[in-house]
Amino acid sequence: MHEMWSRTRPTILRSAIAVSAVAVGSIGHDLLAVLPWALLILVLDLLAGKLLGFGPGQTAKRRNQALLVSLVGAVVAGAAVVAIPSAPPAFLSPGLLLLLIPAFRAGEVRGHVAAVATVAASMVVVLGAAQADGTSSTTFLASTLQWAILAVGLGLLGAWTARLAERRTGPRSATTAAHEAARLLRRLSDLAGALEGGFDAPAAAELLLHAVNDRIPGSRMAVLVGVGSEPAVPLALRGIDRLPWPSPTTGDSVMGRVWRTGVAESGLWSSVNEERAVAAAPLRDSAGARIGVVVIDRLAATPFSDEDLQVLGYLAEGHSANLDVALIFAALRQHAAFEERERLAREMHDGIAQELVALGYRIDVARREAALDAPEFAPTLEDVRSDLSRVLTDLRLRIADLRLAVRPDQGLGAVVGARLQQFGAATGLTVGLRLNESPYRLPAHLETLIYRLILDVLNDARNAAGVTGIEARLDVNAPQAWLTITHDGESHLAADAFRDHPLAALGATIEVEVGLTGVKVSLALNDRGPTHLPQLVPERMGLIP
Asked: The pTM is what?
């Protein structure tokens, strides 16, 4: 709205001047004698505006053309002073009022020098005609000089407004935006340094468990995160390697009630071998929405008191902000990665894939012509067409790899199942999958890395000779996972093929067993030892508003 007003304000001013000139013409003058001159000068002014257009970046040629039109308007205003009969009061001359319009426009177009030149051109016409007619007088000269000074002042005003508009919309605005972006990023970096754990969600969860362990005696504790109906994701564990409690998204338990209501609660929980006391408190974002829970348990002989529950709620509230920021940052980073993968898949599909399909059609035409006119080339063209079909199949699978990613609404098992089904349909191989997933999900980074490991084995199977089928087994009990995937072809994988895989750097064990009749790749994640998840793991969560 401000930009629209800044564009139309000079036009409204010039139109008001033209209306004033017509009104003055009706006072002691012939109205019909003033109206054509006013309309002609307005048309010339609109033409100058049309040449300039809106916004910054007008070319020098267009500016010069607009200045020339303004000079013509000034000459027309001078002619109007001469043509319109003079009547008292002498200083109210419609022609001199009309001179203000081209003077203002000239100042906008080329600055103060152009405004002075425009007024001077009009004065040459007025004074020259008065000298020739012998109508020059002291009163006339004084009145004309006053109007000339006023016109120059209005032209200077036009030049000043044009400079303000250039500062607002010109190259400096980009510089200002860059400075503002740099300031915000620097502030973000400072905030990350001021936060305990920075923007690393598992680190923030570990700090919460450390604070809980210092204030409340307990043997097992964990931080689980999740928004809305998403599965719970364990961020940090203490005293356990896997989650012993039922999922908070299913069943009626202390954790389930805290997960649904967002109110801290304590009670008893019966496991297979013993009864234990359990307490849980919600983790909330800045808007008060639940983003997770912190849970702690111990032997039922020492149940949690109201004071323990109050302290747990206080600690959860104090650490929620850090955890919320880390989860938002991870979600934004993950969302950007999804968009980039989708963009690459779309460009590959709409670009090189379409070109290869068109090339296949041309090879098919050449095959048909060769079968009739040059049979000796037919086998070669058949081989070329087969190779092109293989490349197209491989390209389509790689496009699918980019689009089939682990997302908030799709767990690892669903994505792996869809990928194996698509792989079998594209290659004609027999595929099998045995899947066992707990209600808890792995963090997104780990799910993505496991999925990429499976894709590496599928790529090996695609290029292996003599392969007839693929078998995979995936067991997920967050934060632990086990994977076994085999095929019966001549594998190109070496025993140390995944020695430098990112999962190995996170403590996972990856083994490759190459035999005479195929290859077997095994993965064990958090099978023993670690009691918390690796650092720098972005969470699988939707964007938090």
From this structure: 0.52
